[in-house]
Specification:
By secondary structure, the protein is an alpha+beta fold. The protein is built from 15 helices and 13 strands.
Length: 385
């Protein structure tokens, strides 16, 4: 198989993994084969503070085989001792590090994480990279040692760098589907879920099907609309980005498609629409949707029940500032967007989030969002008198 064909197979497998986490193993196996390496691991999460790290998911694969035992051992025994953790957190986005670079000379001799876990799992000579994830989160991808033991070639390192935007996009789409009920669903089943807007495109980029939430967005024409069966953005510069993403996802025959994301501004101001454009391989198409070639996932934070910040604060035992942040999170805004909208520093917003987690014993933002959303549907007390 040529290098080009191998890369195309990896991309197709990553596209599958974005829609169904069970497919990560197949993507990992293809990456191991292409790089000739001893497996890989990935951690996705958010650092609320130096001491407070929330893990969204973590996996370790060796030639496509999940090693939950090693993953569990690492987090239970070595994670608190791993000198790399704070250094990776502050590493520049997309910069490749040779694992020994993240330890001091003394630590290379004495570190239990390095000398016991990493060396034993053929990862002591690996490559590790941190990627910015959605909403201020982090993706840490670690590639184990080369099988031949001869070190890393420029070709191997070049392949890793080419994969980085696709790894990031896979996690981004997976997180957009998490909690909506659509993760792992077939293409036909996705149309029945209302947690996210779903637009299915055929090979020509024409709309093949939409679900109710996406249809409401298109009918409003606020940010995104369809004309003659094709998608367009309202603002010219944003439409240029959208059309470029669609072209990448639906390339000429024989060229692997690539996903991407963008935001579309709205007449009413923030929060903007978030679009994830995602290629669909033939193996993903079920019988009723065989013509689907790409998905456009539309995240519309404003399409929900209005929640009064003061009511949320009172019902949930939050301060007024925390209540406002909680409601904006429930509307789909990121920490960065909330900071911009409220004129506060991102560190201040993260501190509010941390305090709310502590008050309710939460470990994930999704738990807080669900609790805030419950305030909107709970019966309200009538006026007294």
């Amino acid at each position: 198989m040529s290098e080009r064909d191998s890369f195309g197979h990896i991309l197709a497998s990553l596209h599958d993994a974005a829609l169904d986490p069970a497919r990560w193993s197949g993507a990992s196996a293809l990456i191991d084969e292409a790089l000739h390496t001893h497996g890989s691991s990935m951690v996705f999460g958010d650092w609320v503070s130096e001491e407070d790290i929330r893990i969204g998911f973590a996996w370790y694969f060796f030639r496509g085989e999940p090693r939950r035992d090693l993953c569990r051992e690492y987090f239970q025994v070595y994670y608190p001792l791993d000198e790399r953790v704070p250094r990776v957190r502050h590493a520049p986005d997309s910069r490749l590090f040779h694992v020994p670079e993240l330890f001091t000379e003394e630590e290379l001799k004495t570190s239990p994480a390095y000398n016991q876990m990493l060396v034993a799992t053929h990862a002591g000579n690996g490559i590790i990279v941190r990627l910015d994830g959605p909403d201020g989160s982090h993706i840490v991808w670690a590639i184990n040692d080369p099988v031949n033991g001869d070190g890393w070639s420029s070709v191997q390192l070049g392949t890793i760098r080419r994969l980085l935007p696709h790894i990031r996009q896979t996690v981004r789409v997976q997180q957009a589907l998490t909690g909506t009920g659509a993760l792992g669903a077939t293409l036909t089943e996705m149309l029945d879920h209302s947690g996210v807007g779903v637009i299915q495109l055929d090979l020509r980029g024409r709309i093949a099907a939409v679900n109710d939430r996406a249809q409401a967005v298109l009918r409003s024409g606020d940010g995104l609309f369809d004309e003659g069966g094709s998608l367009f953005a309202r603002m010219p510069e944003e439409d240029a980005r959208l059309q470029a993403l669609l072209a990448r996802a639906l390339p000429p025959f024989g060229v692997p498609g690539a996903g991407g994301s963008t935001t579309l501004s709205r007449l009413g101001g923030p929060p903007p629409l978030v679009l994830h454009v995602h290629p669909v391989g033939p193996q993903e198409a079920d019988f009723q949707s065989w013509s689907v070639a790409a998905l456009v996932l539309v995240v519309d934070p404003a399409n929900g029940t209005a929640i009064d910040p003061e009511a949320a604060a009172g019902a949930l035992g939050l301060t007024r500032a925390e209540g406002r942040v909680a409601v904006l999170l429930a509307q789909g805004m990121s920490v960065h967007q909330i900071a911009a909208a409220t004129g506060r520093k991102e560190s201040t917003i993260r501190s509010h989030v941390k305090n709310m987690f502590a008050k309710h014993g939460f470990s994930r933002q999704a738990e807080l969002v669900r609790l805030v959303q419950s305030v909107a549907v709970a019966p309200q007390a009538g006026p007294r008198g």
